[in-house]
Design goal:
single chain; mainly alpha; 6 helices; about 150 residues
Length: about 150
């Protein structure tokens, strides 16, 4: 019976809704910079395959590169991320902007692929036309080479 009371008291105190808001860190990353950092980290995490391995083989550690690029460190990022995550509206706003950037980048890539495919078919036609001309020229050369040479007898 005593165990039940202790259990109920523990649950009561653990469910106590205290507003332990995290104070803003001294070196809080601005929302705009946080958007950029999260955007680039998302791109790096998506490219877990070959591209990431190429970077790492060349001595570039993607996360460190991003931190250097934005002049921040991992602790500053972690504290800022924790601060923004406790303010859900701000955090969702940051991630919505990141999502918009990703969708915009996706559309740019898809448009580039479409343009490449269109240009590839045009290049293939041009190459085929050039080869067709070369084939005609080669056949003329072959006909000439089969002609008997005139001899001065």
């Amino acid at each position: 019976m005593m165990k039940k009371y202790i259990f109920i008291i523990i649950i009561f105190f653990s469910c106590n809704n205290t507003n332990n808001k995290i104070l803003s860190p001294d070196n809080l990353i601005s929302e705009e910079k946080m958007e950029d950092v999260i955007y680039e980290m998302t791109l790096i995490n998506v490219s877990k395959g070959v591209n990431r391995q190429i970077l790492e083989r060349n001595g570039v550690i993607p996360e460190e590169y991003i931190f250097k690029k934005y002049d921040i460190d991992s602790l500053q990022f972690a504290l800022s991320n924790e601060f923004y995550s406790n303010n859900l509206d701000t955090y969702l706003k940051i991630y919505e902007k990141v999502k918009e950037k990703l969708n915009s980048s996706k559309q740019i890539v898809l448009d580039s692929i479409d343009n490449y495919k269109k240009n590839r078919s045009q290049r293939s036609l041009e190459i085929a036309k050039k080869k067709g001309k070369n084939i005609i020229l080669d056949s003329i050369k072959m006909k000439r080479s089969r002609m008997p040479l005139k001899t001065n007898d």
